[in-house]
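Example 5.3 — AMP-dependent synthetase/ligase domain-containing protein
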Amino acid sequence: MNLYLQDSKLTNLGKIMEIHGPKLLGTSYKDPIASFNLFREYTIRHPEVYWSIILKELSVTFHEPPKCILDTTDKSRPGGTWLPGSVLNIAECCLLPSIHPRKEDDSCAIVWRDEGDDDDSDVNRITLKQLREQVILVANALDRTFTKGDAIAIDMPMTVNAVIIYLAIILAGCVVVSIADSFAAKEIATRLRVSKAKAIFTQDFIVRGGRKFPLYSRVVEASPHKVIVLPVSGRNVGVQLREQDISWKDFLAYDNQHQRPNHFTPAYLPVDSMINILFSSGTTGEPKAIPWTQLSPIRSTAEGWAHINVGVGDVYCWPTNLGWVMGPILLFSCFLTGATLALYHGSPLGRGFGKFVQDAGVTVLGTVPSLVKTWKNTDCIKGLDWTKIKSFASTGETSNVDDDLWLSSKSYYKPIIECCGGTELASSYIQASPFQPQAFGAFSTASMTTGLVILDEHGVPYPDDKACVGEVGLFPLYLGATDRLLNADHNDVYFKGMPTFKGMRLRRHGDILKRTVGGYIVVQGRADDTMNLGGIKTSSVEIERVCDRADESILETAAVSVAPPDGGPEILVIFVVLKKGFNQQPEKLKTIFSKAIQTNLNPLFKVSNVKIIPEFPRTASNKLLRRVLRDQIQHELSVRSRM
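Solution (predicted structure tokens):
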């Protein structure tokens, strides 16, 4: 037996394939590598069998068990009803010891370091018991102040305290509203309004790269009802608070004197109860409010367990934020598998982060391609030992092959597991798999239980073995995917207008996929006008609304994003039609647009190019054809790259 095959049988997924494969597939089952595709196809046809196995592998304990795994009798629910009748608190599942996976009270739950601390000092650690006690302390304070079901926002970096607050809100039966700490006040206000948040947790400041940036003042500008303010350092906040706001120290003061501060009875709720409101931009201008239920963490954790092989003994690090879907995915993927969560309180761009990865003994490191490019270009991790890393993961943008090769080389050419999914799916629908040969910057398979087809321009699926390009259509039976939106019609967004395949109405996701001759999948952009800037999804409409008002010379603008020919993050290009009688220079407009977008939308967005044209291409019904503009830029970039 070769070493690679032997190792495959010791992975999370390999173990259950060895146990259940012969029974489910009969004599067709050979081993985890030879039979991977066969086993995955079986999970599409029989998802209830797969999930009954996986639930026993994760740290999920039901207060009341499900009546069954999947109920498809209600035809008004194309995604089915998953785990009907079950009651639990998913935050409690994160915090309790378990036999399988093995989590004990003295297991290390979180390892972290603050930016600016002595890089030669020990990293900080908190055990599962200590984490549970801190979460209970906050849950008691929440229970005293709010009502079960209240929406409570978090707008702060993903620190240990942010994780404690997140789990405490869910433990207390409230709903987390996820807001990224990079958002401008208008974007914060929109999310508070849509979610009807009763309060928001934030910090007085953010420290990044040795610099201090105000956060509380930006949050206050969004006019929240109540703000609980944590200090970025020390015990006392460094800002003057509004009368209705309260410091973290005072918020917890009552419960420090409570007779039973380490006791709290979790709010046990049906599995389809909402625990988290996240946001994803569509093409309407207002971000879609996407509710996560208690099913969502089960799905996201199972993907990391099966495809990235996360489990007990791993130290899992991924620079992210609770305002983006990757934050909750990382949190649950650690606490429901028994892995240790690794957090760096600071910028991931410099050597300090790289030293933390080394000192914390990180075994799984998640990235976004632009982050890898920065590490490579600055050579900031030179001389550091990253060889404990057994696999990398990447999401958010199109990867660059050369950058991926460089990253893989930092740990004896370990694999990079590419992941592509969506907030509304709570997971990746296409991924890489350690059981298959990999190609940098590409996906080798759909995820477990995920069925999909690639559609031609008439909505007809291409054969599964045919190289092609088209919009993806997902099979609707998908545990963890949304069945509602808070501010849009779910059926209109995800199902209306989609073709039927084998009796199923396909679910819309919006990605354009290219399947190569070898069966690998490459994401080629969005079917709608949503764009992905630095791993953050936004819409053309949002960008254009800001740019249209940015200068008196502007008649109208069109925003498109394109991926460079050699890979890497998408670049933002603004097309402009000027008012009659006005002259303007593209470079000047580029500066004006960048400033307006960073002030009103997101300080991380950057305009790469401005093109002034006489008029926009439109359909007969006057609909703007951004696709034509996008193709024009793509062609120009392609020609330039060949020169």
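Remark. The first strand starts at residue 70 and ends at 71.
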